[in-house]
Write a structure and sequence with these properties.
heterodimer; A: alpha/beta; 6-stranded mixed beta sheet; 4-stranded antiparallel beta sheet; about 30% helix; globular; B: alpha+beta; Alpha-Beta Plaits; elongated
């Protein structure tokens, strides 16, 4: 599903990723760990195509991310779901509208959108709050809205950048349970986190970055 | 993942609803923008309608230069006809018409509304007059020379050149029409700038949303579309209001102009805004709104993607 082939990323003289190679199979769930500045976010940005590697290749499914044309980029991104530490919700739109955004933006069948949104909100247990604005939600609820938005279009790959960073331990466990459910449905999940306790509590593969180099989990 | 594409009509309808939602979020600011556009669009529109009304003030025959030849009181009919034939043979002469003294007195009494005027004189004090109409492109020097020659004729009492006022009015009208055209071009540029500026602000405010749309697989076309519809709606609103202003302006200017036209002896002239005068601001406003928004949305959204 994901294959990094000798990927390096440099910002001037600073090396953010140094000859990183690994492979994730379809339906596999992994943690991407490392200290702050180790290169976790840089690696995720390669996968979301916010940046291109300085060297090497990133393959996701049938896509070679360096060779994506502007027309192919939205098509690729529709196969990826992204969860951020700050869920980046549209505060002037309802929970429903926030979750429906990927479907509307990708030209999904309009009649099928309500059903899909309801199903996604059901997965994160927020069906009752569909009509309210995000400003009325707690941080945990907002994070769950962000997760519903990331999975509403049933992506093949789910990327999460510090998804439990702002949450208490109980909520973190619930969120991790959700990711596990998605993996059980065949979604490839890659979670970037610096929470060692969270990683140790889960039986999944760990990719450890240190100074831009992959030191564990090749 | 299965995504069934249902583009076209639905996407545009949703973008239109989204644009209306965005306009409703800040009605005061957007209404002010629409009003500014309406005023700018109405300025050349009202001016054009008013100039067209003024144009009607100039009688058709007054557009051609002419000479009134007042004849001696004792000139006999044969002499008059001879002189008329001589003038007719002159270069540039379009028409020679004899206005007899009796006809002149009758016309004068009718024009002044003094029906008893004709009976107030023992003898008609007016002379016979030859009205000479020259070709429209006759140069002023040629008509002056003809007038001077006629003045030296013993059958002629005096001569009056009639080309001054109408020619000057016509020139002033042409100048006015050109100024309105220049104003219209400036208005077009100003409206595009106004809409571009307003759309830039809107897109900048929505930069986080645009970046998010980009990230979840939306195309830039999808992200831009609501802003283009906003421009179209604002332009249409401005054009609609401008049409109202043009109609109102034409009504206000039309009534006094119509009275003037009647005084000048013209009849049946309708002074006011026609359907074309009202449709034009609407079409132009909508087109310029869409154009300005498209220009701004394109450059700004790319910057935020």
């Amino acid at each position: 599903m994901i294959e990094f082939q000798n990927v390096s990323k440099r910002y001037g003289a600073r090396v953010a990723l140094d000859d990183v190679s690994f492979r994730l199979d379809p339906g596999e769930m992994s943690f991407l760990v490392g200290h702050s500045g180790a290169g976790k976010s840089t690696l995720l940005r390669q996968l979301i195509c916010l940046e291109a590697p300085s060297e090497g290749r990133v393959l996701v499914g049938n896509f070679d991310l360096r060779r994506l044309t502007p027309e192919q980029l939205p098509i690729y991104r529709r196969k990826v779901g992204v969860v951020f530490q700050d869920p980046q919700l549209l505060m002037d739109r309802s929970v429903y509208d926030n979750v429906a955004l990927p479907l509307q933006a990708s030209g999904f069948d309009r009649k099928a959108i309500p059903h899909r949104v309801e199903a996604a909100l059901q997965q994160v247990d927020l069906t009752e709050l569909a009509g309210i604005l995000p400003s009325a939600l707690s941080s945990g609820q907002r994070q769950r809205v962000g997760i519903a938005r990331a999975v509403v279009h049933r992506p093949a790959l789910l990327l999460a950048d510090e998804p439990t960073g702002n949450l208490d331990p109980d909520l973190s466990k619930k969120i991790m349970k959700l990711f596990t459910q998605f993996r059980n449905h065949g979604v490839t999940v890659l979670i970037a986190t610096h929470e060692q306790a969270l990683v140790e509590s889960q039986p999944f593969r760990v990719l450890r970055l240190d100074g831009g180099r992959l030191v564990e989990g090749q | 993942m299965s995504v069934s594409i249902h583009g076209g009509y639905h996407a545009h309808w949703e973008a239109l609803l989204d644009a209306l939602w965005r306009l409703r979020k800040d009605p005061v600011r957007h209404s002010a923008g629409v009003l500014v556009m309406a005023i700018m669009l109405a300025l050349p529109g009202v001016s054009w309608v008013a100039l067209r009304g003024l144009d009607l003030l100039i009688p058709a025959e007054a557009l051609t230069p002419g000479i009134s030849v007042f004849l001696q009181k004792d000139a006999d009919e044969a002499a008059l006809e001879g002189l008329a034939d001589e003038i007719n043979a002159e270069e540039g002469v379009f028409l020679v018409e004899l206005v007899t003294a009796d006809r002149g007195l009758q016309a004068l009494s009718e024009l002044a509304g003094l029906t008893e005027l004709a009976g107030a004189f023992d003898t008609n004090p007016l002379p016979d007059v030859l009205r000479v109409l020259l070709a429209p492109d006759t140069e002023a020097g040629v008509s002056r020379e003809l007038a001077l020659r006629l003045e030296g004729d013993p059958r002629v009492e005096f001569v009056r050149l009639d080309q001054g006022i109408s020619a000057e009015m016509r020139n002033a009208l042409v100048l006015g029409q050109r100024l309105v055209m220049v104003l219209a071009v400036m208005v077009v540029a100003a409206i595009v700038l106004v809409v571009t500026g307003a759309t830039r602000i809107e897109v900048t405010r929505a930069r986080a949303e645009i970046a998010l749309v980009d990230l979840v697989g939306g195309t830039m076309r999808y992200a831009r579309r609501p802003f283009i519809y906003m421009g179209l709606l604002q332009g249409a609103g401005g054009g609609f209001l401008a049409a109202g202003f043009v109609w109102l302006g034409a009504e206000l200017v039309g009534a006094p102009l119509s009275r003037l036209v009647v005084l000048y002896g013209e009849t049946g002239s309708a002074i006011g805004a026609g359907w074309f005068d009202l449709l034009l601001p609407l079409v132009v406003g909508t087109a310029l709104g869409g154009l300005g928004a498209r220009l701004a949305a394109r450059t700004q959204s790319i910057a935020f993607s």
